[in-house]
C-alpha cells in the first residue's frame, strides 16, 4: 500500500503535502513525488527511495503553488525509479494513482498505435494519456475524467491536477480507499484519515466507484453512474500524535510495542465488566457449523493470519489456511460448504 495526498490551499502547499506523505509512510513505499501548479503550469519533484531524498530536492529546488497532489509509490508496474515515480504528466494533466490498472496493456497498445509516447513503464501513465486525449478532443477536465473512468479495470485511487485550473482537483476510487477532507477555504483529499490528520478532522469516505470534483469552496461527489451523491461527513478521530513514530526507530517497532494496548482495547470492547461476561458480536451464522477457515490477507496482516492459524487450530481444532490476497484474487479457489473466510 502506498499513499495519495491532495490540497487545494489558501497558502503554499508543498510542505503540507510532504507532511501528509510522512503520515502515510507507515504503509511502506519505494519512491515519492509532489506536483503543484506554478503560474498555472504543472511543476513536479520526484525522488527514488526515502522521503528524505524528496525533501532534499524540495530544499534545493522549492515548489511554490497553492494547489497540489503528492504520492508515495509501491511499484507494481516498472522499477522503483524516478522516471516511474508519480505524479505522471501528459499534456495538461498530471495524475497520481494507487493500485493497478489491470487492462493497462491493451489501453497502452491503443495509445501507442495513435502515436503516443510513454515516458514510464507504469500502468498509471495510461490514465494520464487517456485523460489528455479527452482534453485535446475539447472536453473540460470533469467530462474528460468521467469519460475515462469506465475504461479502467482494476483497483485504483486516483487524483488529477490540471494546468490552467488553479481551483480544481479530481479524484476517483474503485477497490482502493480514498477520503476527502473539508477545511476552511481549503479542501483536501487523502488515502485515509491518517493522510488528512493535521489538515482537518472533517472527512468523508468515498464509496466504491465514486469520483469527486474538489475546489476550495466545494466538494461534489458522484457515483459510478455519474449521479450526484452525498457521503456522510464524519469526525476523523485520528490525532496526528497517533501516527507519529514517537521515540521508536521505525513504525514496525512502534507497532510491536503498541500490541499490549491494542489487544487490550480490542478485547475490552467485548467485555461486559459489570455483568462479568463476554459479549460476542452478533453473527448471522452459527459459528459451531464452521468446518474450515481460510484467512486471506497481505503483508503484515498475513503474518497475523499465520499466528491466527496456530491459535485457531490449537483451540478450535479447525483446519486453517492462510492465503496471500494478491494471489488469491486470480485463482478459482475450491471452497467447500461451511468454510469461514476471514478477509
Ligand atoms: N501501479 C502503479 C505503479 O506501479 C501504482 C502503484 C502504487 O499503488 O503505488 O506505479
Q: Provide the structure class.
A: alpha+beta
For the record, give the distance between the C-alpha atoms at the N and C termini, rounded to a whole number.
16 Å
Q: What is the average per-residue confidence, as pLDDT, rounded to a whole number?
A: 93
Strand order of the largest sheet: 3-2-4-1-10-9-11-15
Order of H and E elements: EHEEHEEEHHHEEEEHEEEEEHEEEHEHE
Shape: globular
Q: How would you name the CATH homologous superfamily of the largest domain? A: Aminohydrolase, N-terminal nucleophile (Ntn) domain
Q: Tell me the helix content.
A: 25-40%
The CATH C-level name of the largest domain is Alpha Beta
What CATH calls the topology of the largest domain is Glutamine Phosphoribosylpyrophosphate, subunit 1, domain 1
State which percent range the strand residues make up.
25-35%
Amino acid at each position: 500500500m502506498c499513499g495519495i495526498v491532495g490540497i487545494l490551499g489558501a497558502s503554499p502547499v508543498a510542505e503540507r503535502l510532504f507532511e501528509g506523505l510522512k503520515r502515510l509512510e507507515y504503509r511502506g513505499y519505494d519512491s515519492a513525488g509532489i506536483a503543484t501548479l506554478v503560474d498555472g503550469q504543472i511543476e513536479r519533484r520526484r525522488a527514488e527511495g526515502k522521503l528524505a531524498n524528496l525533501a532534499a530536492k524540495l530544499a534545493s529546488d522549492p515548489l511554490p503553488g497553492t494547489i497540489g497532489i503528492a504520492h508515495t509509490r509501491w511499484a507494481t508496474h516498472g522499477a522503483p525509479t524516478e522516471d516511474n515515480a508519480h505524479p505522471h504528466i501528459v499534456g495538461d494533466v498530471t495524475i497520481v494513482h494507487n493500485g493497478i490498472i489491470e487492462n493497462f496493456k491493451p489501453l497502452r497498445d491503443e495509445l501507442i498505435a495513435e502515436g503516443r509516447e510513454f515516458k514510464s513503464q507504469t500502468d498509471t501513465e495510461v490514465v494520464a494519456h487517456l485523460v489528455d486525449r479527452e482534453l485535446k478532443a475539447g472536453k473540460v477536465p470533469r467530462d474528460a475524467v468521467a469519460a475515462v473512468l469506465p475504461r479502467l479495470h482494476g483497483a485504483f485511487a486516483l487524483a488529477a491536477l490540471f494546468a490552467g485550473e488553479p481551483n480544481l482537483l479530481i479524484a476517483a476510487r474503485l477497490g482502493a480507499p480514498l477520503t476527502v477532507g473539508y477545511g476552511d477555504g481549503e479542501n483536501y483529499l487523502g488515502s485515509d484519515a491518517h493522510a488528512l490528520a493535521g489538515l482537518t478532522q472533517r472527512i468523508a469516505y468515498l464509496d466504491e466507484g465514486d469520483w469527486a470534483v474538489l475546489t476550495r469552496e466545494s466538494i461534489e461527489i458522484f457515483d459510478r453512474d455519474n449521479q450526484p451523491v452525498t457521503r456522510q461527513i464524519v469526525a476523523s478521530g485520528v490525532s496526528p500524535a497517533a501516527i507519529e513514530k514517537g521515540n521508536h526507530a521505525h513504525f514496525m517497532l512502534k507497532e510491536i510495542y503498541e500490541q499490549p494496548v491494542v489487544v487490550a482495547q480490542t478485547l475490552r470492547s467485548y467485555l461486559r465488566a459489570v455483568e462479568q461476561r463476554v459479549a460476542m458480536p452478533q453473527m448471522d451464522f452459527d459459528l459451531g457449523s464452521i468446518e474450515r477457515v481460510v484467512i486471506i490477507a497481505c503483508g503484515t496482516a498475513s503474518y497475523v493470519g499465520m499466528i491466527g492459524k496456530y491459535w485457531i487450530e490449537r483451540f478450535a481444532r479447525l483446519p486453517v489456511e492462510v492465503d496471500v490476497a494478491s494471489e488469491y484474487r486470480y485463482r478459482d479457489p475450491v471452497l467447500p460448504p461451511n468454510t469461514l473466510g476471514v478477509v
